[in-house]
């Protein structure tokens, strides 16, 4: 890259913009931009980078550079960086942190990256119930006002959580009033550090609060989680689902090396080949029928395609419902009947259309009836499979987005070919 083309640090108003620029560059140009920016800007941008790109940029980093990069990071972000380096280097980085920050980082490292504890923020304001409003405001003015601060957290003398008070209540109160005299937020939510972060995100979507306390099972206040964290998790989840549908969840880097990308995609292509061979085997069972009536070969793709699209629609709806926490054991049956109803109506509609077209095309009424029946059968099977597959995969702790589409395609292809060719063999030959 021409040095004149390297963006100036002042062009980025937010670390996320710098991270976006880094992810948008081929690897050589990315390395040049990375080398041209200050350690402070690198450290600020790292939390916004995908893990694959983050790992590549940190691969050659020295211990001293890692210490400089993590100096101003939040504990959870430091933990994410340390997950990408060797155990020995990670230990050396932690050993050089301040005693208080060491404890926070070790606490973050004790949780998985999908648990609330990994996302814990220690910048929320917590005060004893006997503190006065004046003391609270003076403390906030002295320390600064962290983003997404809509409340202060009230604790007992032994750090047990007692509730939260809205900042608006504090600003409106008399200076000498103690916090215990102010009204606590009535719809206050707290989260366990071991909870799944996706469940927390779902709560943020429902309640629309800005921050919430994280409290352990003994009632001790540990920190907070914010709407920014929830938005980040939602975006990550959306990216994950989109990439997983094509088996590309690990390929975060648009400009990753050809060989590594080819290896990742080869496995997925191999899995799809196996499903295609199964569908071909079903067709082979009716080889004689296809040879006797060429129209069957012409119309077969229509049956499979209609089922595949209908199934994908149901699959997408169900996976989204699971991801947002809207689908549960109480409403699964209702959604199943709804999707079957949609399958029946669309099946009748498009079976009639395709059947009529087949009749006009080949001047064979029974052929039109056969393909119409096959499409209706396949759309019902697609609705049933699109509903059941992700639910079963979820209960088996498998990612529905990653493997659901492959299983669904196999079902709709096999059922579509079997019903169409089977009916044709029985009724036409």
- At the first level of CATH, the class of the largest domain is Mainly Alpha
- Taken as a percent bin, the fraction of beta residues is 5-15%
CATH superfamily of the largest domain: SLC41 divalent cation transporters, integral membrane domain
CATH topology of the largest domain: Tetracycline Repressor, domain 2
Count of individual beta strands: 6
Order of helices and strands: HHHHHHHHEHEEHEHEEHHHHHHH
Largest sheet: 3 strands, mixed
Our measurement of the CA-to-CA distance between the termini, rounded to an integer number of angstroms, reads: 68 Å
Helix fraction, binned, reads: 55-70%
Average pLDDT number: 86
Question: What CATH architecture of the largest domain do you see?
Answer: Orthogonal Bundle
How many H/I helices?
Answer: 18
- How many domains comprise the coordinates? 3
């Amino acid at each position: 890259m021409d040095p004149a083309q390297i963006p100036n640090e002042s062009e980025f108003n937010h670390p996320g913009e710098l991270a976006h620029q880094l992810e948008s560059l081929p690897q050589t140009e990315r390395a040049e931009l990375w080398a041209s920016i200050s350690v402070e800007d690198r450290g600020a941008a790292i939390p916004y980078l995908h893990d694959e790109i983050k790992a590549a940029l940190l691969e050659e980093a020295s211990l001293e550079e890692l210490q400089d990069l993590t100096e101003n990071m939040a504990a959870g972000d430091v933990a994410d960086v340390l997950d990408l380096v060797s155990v020995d280097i990670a230990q050396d980085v932690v050993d050089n942190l301040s005693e208080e920050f060491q404890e926070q980082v070790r606490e973050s490292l004790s949780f998985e990256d999908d648990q609330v504890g990994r996302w814990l923020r220690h910048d929320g304001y917590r005060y004893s119930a006997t503190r006065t409003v004046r003391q609270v405001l003076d403390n906030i003015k002295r320390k600064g006002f962290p983003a997404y601060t809509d409340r202060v957290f009230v604790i007992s003398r032994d750090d047990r959580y007692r509730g939260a008070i809205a900042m608006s209540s504090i600003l409106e109160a008399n200076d000498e009033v103690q916090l215990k005299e102010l009204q606590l937020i009535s719809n206050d939510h707290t989260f366990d550090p071991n909870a799944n972060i996706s469940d927390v995100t779902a709560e943020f979507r429902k309640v629309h609060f800005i921050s919430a306390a994280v409290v352990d099972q003994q009632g001790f206040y540990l920190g907070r989680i914010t709407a920014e964290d929830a938005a980040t998790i939602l975006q990550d989840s959306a990216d994950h689902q989109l990439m997983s549908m094509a088996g590309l969840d690990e390929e975060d880097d648009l400009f990753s090396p050809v060989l590594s990308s080819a290896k990742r995609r080869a496995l997925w292509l191999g899995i799809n080949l196996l499903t295609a061979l199964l569908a071909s085997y079903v067709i082979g069972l009716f080889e004689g029928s296809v040879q006797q009536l060429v129209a069957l070969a012409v119309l077969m793709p229509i049956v499979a395609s209609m089922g595949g699209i209908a199934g994908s629609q149901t699959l997408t709806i169900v996976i989204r419902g699971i991801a947002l926490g809207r689908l549960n054991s109480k409403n699964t049956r209702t959604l199943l009947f709804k999707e079957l109803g949609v399958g029946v109506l669309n099946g009748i509609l498009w079976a009639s259309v395709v059947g009529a077209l087949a009749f006009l095309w080949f001047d064979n009424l029974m052929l039109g009836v056969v393909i119409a029946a096959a499409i209706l059968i396949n759309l019902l099977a697609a609705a049933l499979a699109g509903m059941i597959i992700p639910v079963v995969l979820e209960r088996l702790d498998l990612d529905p987005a990653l493997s659901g589409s492959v299983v669904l395609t196999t079902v709709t292809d096999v059922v579509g070919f079997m019903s169409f060719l089977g009916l044709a063999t029985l009724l036409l030959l």
